[in-house]
Amino acid sequence: MNIIMFFLVGLLVHVVFFISIFDIYFTSPLVHGMTPQHVPLPPPAKRLVLFVADGLRADSLFKPDINGTSRAPYIRSIIKERGTWGVSHTRVPTESRPGHVALIAGFYEDVSAVAKGWKENPVEFDSVFNESRHTWCWGSPDILPMFAKGATGDHVYTYTYPAAMEDFASTDASKLDTWVFDEVKAFMNSARGNQTLLSKLHEEKNVFFLHLLGLDTNGHAHRPMSKEYLENIGLVDEGVAEMVSVFEEFYGYDGKTAYVFTADHGMTNWGSHGASHPSETLTPLVAWGAGLQTAQRASTTQNYNDDYLKDWGLETYRRVDVNQGVLPLQYLNNSLHFKAESMYANAIQILEQFKVKVTQKKETTLSFLFTPYHKINTSEKRLNWNKKNQDLKVFLTLFLQIRHCETLIAQALEGLSYYHTYDRFFLGSSVVLGFIGWTSYVVLVILKTHASLRKPPTSVGLVVSFFLLLQSSPFTYYIYCLLPVPVWYFVVSFFYRAMLTLGLIILGLWPFVSGLYRKAKMLQVLLCVYVLASTHSSLQMKQGLPLFSQLVSWATLGSSFFVPLLSSTRLFHRLLSILLSLICVYLVLSTGYEALFPPVLSWLMFVWINMEQEAVDTQNLYSIDFAENIDLTRIRQLRLDDIRRSYFFSLFHSFDPASVYCFLTVFNPFIMGGLLMWKVLIPFIIVMCTFESIQVSTRLSSRSLFLIVLVISDLMALHFFFLVKDYGSWLDIGTSISHYVIVMSMTIFLMLLSVMTHILTSKRILIGQKMKMHFK
């Protein structure tokens, strides 16, 4: 297999392995085709007002300041006098989109949904907004449109401010919340003179959604312990109090409005979110108004495994935490009859999902291979018996009804999980076979072991394909199950040349670059230090992002890709050029002392190069040229030391927008994500360039040394594949995903970076002369 074909096949195999984790562990849990269930009793509320303070931590809201004064006196008065409160436990990824989907649609998106779009719906789902008579929303253009587009009909109305207002360098991000409050007041006032709108507002099943982004923006820009963030909490508290007065006055204090105040996610002390730290997953929940329980004193010690109640000064007020799936009855202030009917509707809705899931799985599985879930039958019969017994006035009957519903919900959710993971063992086994087969093939390539030729096992592939076809399996199942077939074929017959039909990719011409490229690079480093300092100072004084700093930052990023190609290909000259170019970019992407990391890492890499050179006693390092070291007769065979070098290399292998403030401050997830990804890759490039230097100085084939690294990385990836979890604590789930994703990303990026670093170290662009291209 030629080197280009090997690279492409290896890249494809690892991309499949990388994607497989989301098909095996994190597919969408949604089920479609159920009949909506409703409570047959009149609702206690005619309308809902939902406040979501984006990025608000539970402790930031509930905990008094150092003087014992509440930062949100109105919300605290609700907790003590009029409503029910608790902690809402969110899940990873603690981002705005999945957080709002969980709040408004009632389910947790799979992790991959974050990468599928911020404003569009990656999957169809129902929501409270969709089931409402009318919904009016005010807030961010990044959140509101996804619920409006997913709604059936034209009854979800959105009012958003311009995206440019989401500026992390803004003088006061709390203006985003002020905008929402002002717009709601103006809207309610205008309705008094608009008879059509007025009649809509007085209908039942209306929802008002106020999305408050100021806290999230101030938290990113100034950190959650900053004056700006804490003062923003007070502004939100005052705004909520004012909104309650507006709605109560508009509806004549009819007592038919329910209010819910919560957050989609929290935030770490350093202003980031997305992971599973308690500061990110614990959010406040306060509910009051029509049909909701008033404040209750705790009659006994509340059993929570934390010290928050004491720290927040709320140990004497009943705390009710919530999770997904089950209706929190303790929040409801209704008759036992209403609670029983509500629980029944909740249970039947989940049971309908279970029945649809069973039907789907039966249709896509051969009958003799289908293994049903049996635990749910008894509970369903008991529930039907209680429903038919119409003596709902009997307290014991109602109590048993509720308990049976809770049992059914628990078992139905367990059954949904059973069928949701039905194919996991089958797909996991196929991926593991692929892992082992690929690793074995790479080892055989390294050892140059010849195997006897055999006919390709096309019959095996046909059998597997026919089996999947009978079960109407998704397209991705064919990839995971058929991948081991050609991989294992190559293990036993990788000299079968008839398989190599893919031609060479034509290389594009290197562009000529003009400009004053011979300036001292240390001046660029000093310029970047100035840019970083001036940007930080400007943002601190709330003067926005300086245009000069922005231009220099983007110019530095762009030039870092080709400036090293203008320098000499002598080993130390080229490494120094690459290092200085990358340090400049890393510097403007830094928020503090992490800017020291690349220089320290580079010093360690130079030590490593010298140690390896001394170990093999080759020519002087200063005389080595990346471009000229192409004498194939000087390339030696692998030794045991080379495994040590590869292992040492393999050892080197959350969202904080502050790192990109020198480039832009207006929220743009894709540009910001790309810049942060490049920052993460810079240390990898430094290490890869060092690795390239070592293989040149030790006269070893770069392909052989790289393959050893690939084998080590694949063994690590296979280990973490078995450790992936979709159950347990949020910390366990997030950590298991992170480990596998990091290792697989490393393996894929190593392949791409090996090509990139080869170009950075050995290619040179000569201005005004004939371009010389050297290939190893």
Detailed description of the structure:
There is one protein chain. With 776 residues, this protein is mainly alpha-helical. The chain has helices at 3-24, 58-62, 73-82, 96-105, 128-131, 144-149, 175-191, 195-201, 214-222, 227-250, 278-281, 308-312, 336-363, 377-388, 395-420, 424-447, 458-470, 475-482, 484-493, 521-540, 547-559, 571-588, 597-616, 640-650, 669-697, 702-722, 730-762, and strands spanning 47-53, 83-89, 134-139, 156-160, 206-212, 257-262, 282-289. A seven-stranded mixed beta sheet has the order 2-7-6-1-5-3-4. Strand 3 (134-139), helix 6 and strand 4 (156-160) form a beta-alpha-beta unit. Helix 1 runs antiparallel to helix 27 and helix 21 (547-559) packs antiparallel against helix 22. The longest helix has 33 residues, at 730-762. It starts with a helix and ends in a 14-residue tail after the last helix. Ethanolamine phosphate transferase involved in glycosylphosphatidylinositol-anchor biosynthesis. Transfers ethanolamine phosphate to the first alpha-1,4-linked mannose of the glycosylphosphatidylinositol precursor of GPI-anchor. Residues 414-492, 520-729 form the GPI ethanolamine phosphate transferase 1 C-terminal domain.
